[in-house]
Write a structure and sequence with these properties.
Distance between the termini: 57 Å
Largest sheet: 6 strands, mixed
CATH topology: Rossmann fold
Helix content: 25-40%
CATH superfamily: Response regulator
Oligomer: single chain
Strand order of the largest sheet: 1-3-2-4-5-6
CATH architecture: 3-Layer(aba) Sandwich
CATH class: Alpha Beta
Shape: globular
Order of helices and strands: HEEHEHEHEHEHEE
Length: 177
C-alpha cells in the first residue's frame, strides 16, 4: 500500500480561481464539460495548454507541483490529467502512482509530458498506469490527438455578444448594462 504525506499549503483561493477556465453555462441549464487537470511546475506550460484548450468545450484546472496536482485531482473529479514528469514536491511518477491507487481517481487517464528520452521510460510509465506520454517540446496536434483518445474534444462555439474571453478566467458572461 502506498503511503504519502501532504507537504504543501493550499494555494490562495485567488490563485486557484485565476487558473481555472470555466466553460459557459447555457441559460436555464448547466452543461458539464470535461475537466482536465494540468500539472507542471512551469506556469508557461500550463498557461499554454489552457490557452490552446479554450477553443474546446473543456474546463482546465492548473497545478504547479505533483502534490498540488494530486490535491486538485482529488478535489476536482476530472476526466483527464496531464502531468509533467520532473517537478518539485512530487514527480509525475508519484502523481501517476498515487492517482492509480486511489479508487476515486484510479480510472482517470493520465497523460505524461516529459523532456526525458530514456529507452525504458515508455515501459515504466505504462507499468505505473499512464494512459499515454508525449515528448517535450510537445506538438500541439499530437497533444490534441492524445487528449482526444481519452475525452471528447468539441470545438467551442464562437462567443456571443454576451460573452467575452479572459486569459485567466476563461469564457465569461458579460452582465447586461
Amino acid at each position: 500500500m502506498l503511503a504519502f504525506k501532504w507537504h504543501f499549503k493550499p494555494a490562495p483561493r485567488s490563485l486557484l480561481m485565476s487558473q481555472t477556465s470555466t466553460a459557459p453555462a447555457t441559460p436555464g441549464e448547466q452543461k458539464r464539460y470535461p475537466t482536465i487537470v494540468c500539472i507542471d511546475d512551469d506556469p508557461h506550460i500550463t498557461q499554454a495548454i489552457g490557452l490552446l484548450l479554450t477553443h474546446y468545450e473543456v474546463n482546465v484546472v492548473s497545478a504547479y507541483s505533483g502534490e498540488h496536482g494530486i490535491w486538485e485531482t482529488l478535489s476536482q473529479d476530472p476526466d483527464l490529467v496531464i502531468t509533467d514528469l520532473r517537478m518539485p514536491q512530487g514527480s509525475g511518477e508519484l502523481v501517476v502512482e498515487c492517482l492509480k491507487t486511489v479508487p476515486k481517481t484510479g480510472g482517470v487517464p493520465v497523460i505524461v509530458l516529459t523532456g526525458r528520452r530514456e529507452p525504458h521510460l515508455k515501459r515504466m510509465l505504462k507499468r505505473l498506469g499512464a494512459a499515454g506520454h508525449l515528448q517535450k517540446p510537445v506538438n500541439i496536434h499530437d497533444l490534441l490527438e492524445e487528449i482526444g483518445k481519452h475525452i471528447e474534444l468539441r470545438k467551442r462555439d464562437t462567443p456571443t455578444d454576451s460573452e467575452s474571453y479572459d486569459a485567466t478566467a476563461g469564457w465569461q458572461r458579460i452582465p447586461p448594462a
